[in-house]
Amino acid sequence: MPPLDEETALFMPITDPSISLTKATEILRWQDKIIAQDPLVESVVGKIGRAESAIDPAPVNMTETVINFKPKDQWPAGTTKETILQRLDDKLRLPGVTNIWTQPIRNRIDMLSTGIRTQVGVKVFGNDLATIEEKETEIERALRPVPGVADLYAERITGAPYLEIKVNREAAARYGINVGDVQDVIETAIGGKNLTTAIDGRQRLPVRVRYSADFRQDPEQLRNNVLVTASNGGQIPLGQVADLGVVMGPSMISSENGLLRGSVLMNVRGRDVGRFVDEAQRAVAREVKMPPGYYIEWSGQYENQIRAKKRLELVIPAVFLIVFLLLYKTYNSFKEASHVILAVPFALSGGVFLLKLLGYNFSVAVWVGFIALFGTAVQTGIVMVIYLEEAVERKKAAMGTLTVQGLREAVMEGALLRLRPKIMTVSTVVAGLLPIMWSTRTGAEVMKPLATPVLGGMVSSLLHVLIVTPVIFAWLRERELSRKKTASAL
User: Fold this and answer.
1) Is 332 left (phi over 0), alpha (psi -120 to 50) or beta?
2) What is d(CA 442, CA 363) in angstroms, rounded to the nearest whole number?
3) CB 485 within 8 A of CB 473
4) CA distance 135 to 152
5) Where in the chain is the domain with CATH 1.20.1640.10?
């Protein structure tokens, strides 16, 4: 089995209802042939339609192609997965067909959890399929100018041809035929009826009977070839007791929360999903007016991000509060606790700068890295304060009475003692994280955003702990000395 980063999938929803199953099969074969000609593609497997299972979330109008790339050591220098997909996407564009590039496993998970096959989706809820499709088109038009949108596609609900047969009750009554008899004949002749079951070992094979394909190719043949038995035993053509015609209807009906549902699908490229959705929501709210009884919801991977954001909005303040309470319990001083926790914003600044430099967007992995960084930064600040306090106590014992000059000498001595351990700590962290930043193996796209804030924050916290922390410590102690001197003078 190839690594996950050497495998991708192309999902092609058929947006033109006039494309038949035969034509879609031809498109799939042509597409697989074009993909297989790419020098970096190892294998291609195409699939059309969906499984006959209630747990398959794929729609009936979607073809699926799983592509395995050659190992990355065979790729030309500077080639990335994105450049390969862009090259293939340019070759595979067809009118009436939309290309959606994603990972096979992730796509199935997204479809099962949210019903959306792309990163972001807009669900349109209502009671009328035609109105839902109209609003989908308006939303697609409003989202197209938004920067970062890719693979934009509004699901086509209606447009599939259906054979509609309406029993003419008056005509059937003249021949002594009831509606149930006509429907039974239609079911048997067109759909087929199971007569018995053949047993072959452990297999059970249903034996079905229906008209040959030559007699049921079009409505005209059905009118003349399907015969209904009258009350006197005569054989009456179906066209004399029923009206047949082709009408347009939905290819698949989706429902959720007791309402009919349509979807507008899209991926996001070149920017973070959160900011894209914020801008897209404003564009949709400005240009699309929903009628009474209809509403939209933003879904897809964005749902997971919203849930994670809500959790982080609770977790991160809780982390700060717990750290501050522990510091206050340790020093019994609000100022000392505030002094030490200042290491957090300094560490945050370094992490943010490195994220910006490397072009990573904020994500759950990034915030997990920041939480780990906050704890490490506070710990190093505590150790520095302990060194400074020990140095001050030694100077006070040696001098008897601590002066401002003695305090500064003690702070300088404590900071120098902490210089080597701090540099060793940061060097160890940096040496441990750099291989992650260089890695291109499976999972590196998740680990890099997690390691980046820790790496940048440790460097900035090094400057803070070695330079800023001693200065603030000395300033606070000088204020205490001046207050004590003023109090003794009074």
Assistant:
1) left
2) 18
3) no
4) 15
5) 333-489
Q: Say how far apart CA 166 and CA 340 lie, in whole Å.
A: 81
Task: Give the residue among 40, 99, 111, 39 at the shortest CA–CA distance from 64.
Answer: 99
Where, residue-wise, is CATH 3.30.2090.10 in the chain? 160-250
Look at the chain and count its residues: 490
Residue 274 φ/ψ region, left for φ over 0, alpha for ψ in the -120 to 50 degree band, beta for the rest? alpha
Alpha helices in 359-443 (DSSP H): 364-399, 404-438
Q: Which residues are CB-neighbours of 392 under 8 A, at least 6 positions away?
A: 402, 407, 410, 411, 414, 477
Distance CA 46, CA 325 (A): 59
CATH 3.30.830.10 fits 160-250, yes or no: no
pLDDT at 125: 93
User: What are the distances in angstroms from CA 119 to CA 72, 106, 114, 266?
Assistant: 25, 10, 10, 7
Distance CA 428, CA 262 (A): 53
Query: In 10 A of CB 230, how many CB atoms?
Result: 17
Strand partners, 125: 261, 295
Write the pLDDT tens digit of every residue in 144-186. 999 988 878 888 777 777 888 899 999 889 888 888 888 888 8
Q: What is the pLDDT of residues 383-433, one digit of tens each?
A: 788 778 788 888 877 777 777 788 788 888 888 877 787 788 888 888 888
Output the pTM of the full model.
0.62
Does the pLDDT at position 32 exceed 90? Answer: no
Residue of higher predicted confidence among 122 and 99: 122
For 333-489, give the CATH class: mainly alpha
Report the b/e string of 259-292 with b at 16+ CB within 10 A. bbbbbbbbbbeeebbbebbebbeebbeeebebee
CATH class entry, domain 1-114:
alpha beta
Which residues of the chain are in CATH 3.30.70.1430 domains? 1-114
Least confident of 87-91, 257-261, 268-272: 268-272
The helix or strand, by DSSP H or E, that contains position 102, with its residue range, turns out to be: strand 100-102
Closest CA to 240 of 162, 161, 163, 177: 177
